[in-house]
Every structure is written in C-alpha cells, then in structure tokens.
Amino acid sequence: KSIIKITNEDGLDRLHKNHRVHLKTAKNRGVKTRIITNNHKAKLPEGFKKFAEAKHNKTMKGRFFVKDGKESFLITSPNTGVLVKGQYLANSLEQLFEHSWQNSIRF
Fold this sequence. Notes:
The protein is an alpha/beta fold. The protein has two helices and seven strands; from the N terminus they run E-H-E-E-E-E-E-H-E.
C-alpha cells in the first residue's frame, strides 16, 4: 500500500493542513507515503515527517498522486483534477516518480 505525490509548496501546506489526520491513519495501517515538491526552498510543516517522507526536486513540474498503483489523480488547476482508475497510467506515473525520487534531495 502506498501513496506517492508530486506537488508544489502550496500543495505541501494544503496536504498537511487538510489531510494530515488521514495520512497519519494511513501510516498506522502500513501505507507508505512519499512526496516530492518542486520548490527547493520549501519548508516542511511541523510534524510532517511523522506520516510521510518528503524530498524536493526543482526540475519536477506538475502535480499528481498515485494510490496503491491503481488510481491516479492529475491536478489540472488549483481546484480541478482528473481521476483515472487503472494500472496503466498509475504504473507510468510511478516510474516517473521513482526516477525523480532517486534524483531528489531530502528535507
């Protein structure tokens, strides 16, 4: 079980503010959450490391997340996105994420 996400600094703050309870619950259930932000000057919100690993990579542009390698959510604007269920896109995005993760820097 996993959640991977690529976001910007605002998305990192929103994730912490609006979803930290859910992410803590997921962590307690064994879900591994990893996040990459494209802002190398971003600061992790206090307590963030308790429920997710985070890195930064200034070359990554875009916003998406993948859940369990089966569902992908592509953020197309601040309040809009597209949910795609299926492994084909999820697997491609996971490969992109893994490549970026290996070339990212820990907070």
